Amino acid sequence: MSVGKRIYLKRNMPDPKLIEEFKKIPASNTADVMGRSCAMNPRIHLVSSPKAQMMCGPAYTVKCRAGDNLALHAALNFCQEGDVLVVSNEEDNTRALMGEVMMAYLYLQKKIAGIILDGPIRDIDEIGKWDFPVYATGTTPGGPYKEGPGEINVPISCGGISVNPGDIILADPDGIICIPRNDAADVLPKAQAFMEADGGKLEKTKAGTINRDWVNKTLADKEFEIIDGVYEN
Fold first, then answer.
1. What are the residues whose beta carbons fall under 8 Å from the beta carbon of 50, sequence distance 6 or more?
2. Distance of CA 229 to the CA centre of its chain
3. With contact defined as beta carbons under 8 Å apart, do 156 and 126 qualify?
4. pLDDT over 70 for what percent of the chain?
5. What is the 8-class DSSP label of residue 115?
6. 21: how many CB neighbours lie within 10 A of its CB?
7. Which DSSP string corresponds to 26-37?
8. Contact, 51 vs 131, CB < 8 A?
């Protein structure tokens, strides 16, 4: 087995019912019940115009060498409908990993749920209009090499977050989180309860009945000092 040039065709997959339920929950609500440590760096952001607010699906991981998309081309051959391609790129920002031709193949032929690239794309004038979730760090006309190495369906780091093949990726206009496959069934009911409570807080805020006594209590517990005066320098 050639480490660095491996393509795994199989993944441990999450329950499809979990994916459908997570689609109903904002990424922020789910992140808040996961210790707030599951969100990818905001350098990776939505660059297209999907009509649906939520993108959710099983991670199909691609490990690219910086500025090289050979492994990503291989992923286009093997990924399946509903997958979310999650692509590491050694945080390189000098070369676009994909453009309109590759993206159209994923969108129109493979019908994946979306793609997340820890790197730039090009042809944003077209891709930016598409009803297809594309998350990237930005754009550049500079193109990639096709030399490798690279791997498919191995653990990767994308946006500073560990992603394993088959983890659940949840994204909306706020950004992207990764829900580990083995934790998803435990996280879901907590995220659902948090979303319901959050909605209640919003209604109370709009009505002017929200109780913010917890702020003063927390400040006191943390030993903040509130001074009725002006800072002198």
1. 114, 130, 131, 132, 133
2. 45
3. no
4. 100
5. E
6. 16
7. -HHHHHHTTTT-
8. yes
Q: Which residue in this structure is represented by tokens 């998350």?
A: 135
Residue 218, token pair as written in the block:
């927390």
User: What are the pLDDT digits (tens) for 9-46?
Assistant: 999 999 999 999 999 999 999 999 999 999 999 999 99
Q: How are beta strands 55-64 and 45-46 bridged, if at all?
A: unpaired
Q: Tokens standing for 149? A: 């190495």
Residues 163 and 157: beta-carbon distance below 8 Å: yes
What pLDDT score does 1 carry? 63
Is 80 within 8 Å of 110 (Cβ atoms)? Answer: yes
Q: Which tokens go with 231? A: 């800072």
SS3 175: strand
Mean pLDDT value of segment 142-161: 97
Mind listing the pLDDT tens digit for each residue in 75-126?
999 999 999 999 999 999 999 999 999 999 999 999 999 999 999 999 999 9
pLDDT digits (tens, 9 = 90+) for 201-222: 889 999 999 999 999 999 999 9
CA neighbor of 190 nearest in space, from 32, 56, 40: 32
Largest CA distance in the chain: 70
pLDDT tens per residue, range 114-142: 999 999 999 999 999 999 999 999 999 99
Whether omega for the bond prior to residue 149 falls within 30 degrees of 0, making it cis, is yes
- Whose structure tokens read 């193949």? 105
Spatial separation of the C-alpha atoms in residues 135 and 142, rounded to whole Å: 18
